[in-house]
Amino acid sequence: MSLALDTTSAAILEVCEVAVHFSGLVAIASMSFAVPEGEIVSLIGPNGAGKTTAFNVITGFLKPTGGRVLFRGTDLTRLSSNRIAGLGVVRTFQRTSIFAGCTVFDNVLTGMHRQGRTETWGALLRLASVRAETERMRAAVAEILNFVGLSHRAEELAGNLAYGEQRLLGIAIALAADPKLLLLDEPAAGLNPSETEAFMAVVQRIRDRGVTILLVEHDMRMVMTISDRVVVLNHGRIIAEGSPEVIRANPDVIQAYLGQGVKHAKG
Ligand SMILES: Nc1ncnc2c1ncn2[C@@H]1O[C@H](COP(=O)(O)OP(=O)(O)OP(=O)(O)O)[C@@H](O)[C@H]1O
Known about the structure:
alpha/beta, transport, globular, 267 residues, 6-stranded mixed beta sheet, ATP binding
């Protein structure tokens, strides 16, 4: 089946025939899709479909068995995760990784130095000197906290934040790394409906400020409301790709995923 990209925008990310095998288990058989610059693209599918594995390949945490991932034409599959993050491909994790004993402000400041997770401790050690020499960074942190609606919590210890606020802090930390492409791994997991609503608005505003977004999410109301395009994975293969309207009506997708009582599938 041809899954050609039907769009006029240039692709910021091209996933080309990526395969991932784990000693006999085929996590991704052969996956090709593109993410147009400036859009919100969602990757959906049942548990075990290969979504997180795809994120791990794109961000360099996992080398694929075959295929390539191109970011603005650069092959990412040969680069380290730190280098990939440095190019502007930044991810959040299913479990928010924050420093509970640091303030909200310092968590985001640390994110500014964070080319990848392994540099986090080095960044913390450098924090004092960075503080002294970079007022510009402090202003940028303040702007990001304002953007996600956490300004009033800036001096609070991150560990004291409510769960929904911690997820927003995860987003703020990712924004501090100046992403061009932001990968969000189940950002709405565990959020209540009003927190999810607020989160959706933040994700749309991030897109509106020019950051392209690749989203993995099981909350179908969020996916169908904010996505420009949806890619559906099942058993490591793409079974459909298109606008939310097209995906919602696709019988293969309904059978494989949407028909199985997925949260808010009807939007
Ligand atoms: N490190 C690993 N070693 C072996 N098998 C793995 C590994 N990581 C993932 N898998 C397997 O690969 C397949 C795809 O898993 P993956 O986590 O990518 O799915 P997913 O779509 O993200 O699922 P979920 O929605 O539950 O997060 C699953 O069968 C999983 O058990």
